[in-house]
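User: Here's a chain of 300 residues. Predict its fold as tokens.
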Amino acid sequence: MDTITKTYDRAAEDLGNIVGLEHVNLLVPDQRPATLFYVSALGLTRDPYMMTSVDNMWINVGPKSQFHLPTGKDQRLRGRTALVIPGREQLLKRLGNMKKPLEGTQYAFKEHNDHVETTCPWGNTMLVYEPGKRFGDMQMGMPYVEFDVPVGTARGIAAFYAKVFDTMTRVEKNTAHVSVGKGQELVFKETDRKLPDYDGHHIQVYVANFSRPHAALAKLGAISEESNQYQYRFLDIVDPESGKKLFQIEHEVRSITHPMYLRPLLNRNPRQNNRAYVPGRDGFTPEVEAEELPGRVRFG
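Assistant: Prediction complete.
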């Protein structure tokens, strides 16, 4: 192989200034059904170190992302959150087991060819995929959050992120795709349906160059909170040319010097139980999930 003249698509490995989508924050009125949905049904893991009381709950989704679920009047994301969770058969079994405990809520699930669609007790939609080529090497995580936005806004939204955050964007079929880290996107899909009023839910991203987006947002009059040295927030996505407001979703913007950047997130193996326990396999690892778990020890 001629190592000097061989060419590669170097742009395929580019990442924009937004380096990670860390959490989606949704208020829930009751922590018990939230636990049944996010932990028992989806098989995710409650963070054991942070927010361990009954007024908030952080749910780990692989090594990089979380749901934050403070107690309050329920909020609904105007769109869908995509998750990668291995083991479709086990997922469907867990979802089925929660039908009765979550009876009387908006909880539901439905199989599709390439994913399972499920709805939380308060109407938030999750699209659950198995690991695969579409998501690169992601074995568990949050590959994208998709928002429904008004007709005619996708190009302006893409221009906003490209200009303000210096990140890669593209527009396909009236849908804006915004890179927010390796294997992660924000997706803004145009719809002519009437959108519900914004209720205050938010997302959180990490950025490498922290000051330049802040300056651009300040120039647009979009800064909504000067949180601390490592964080600020904005609410409105605006057309960078006209200044017209296109969509509202609060962004919690953190620097990569933030003390919590790359904090290790513990994820359990949801297949473990006391009647079919495998020593040493309490934690999630892709290799364990892919095999038949030989050496199983059974009790009772």
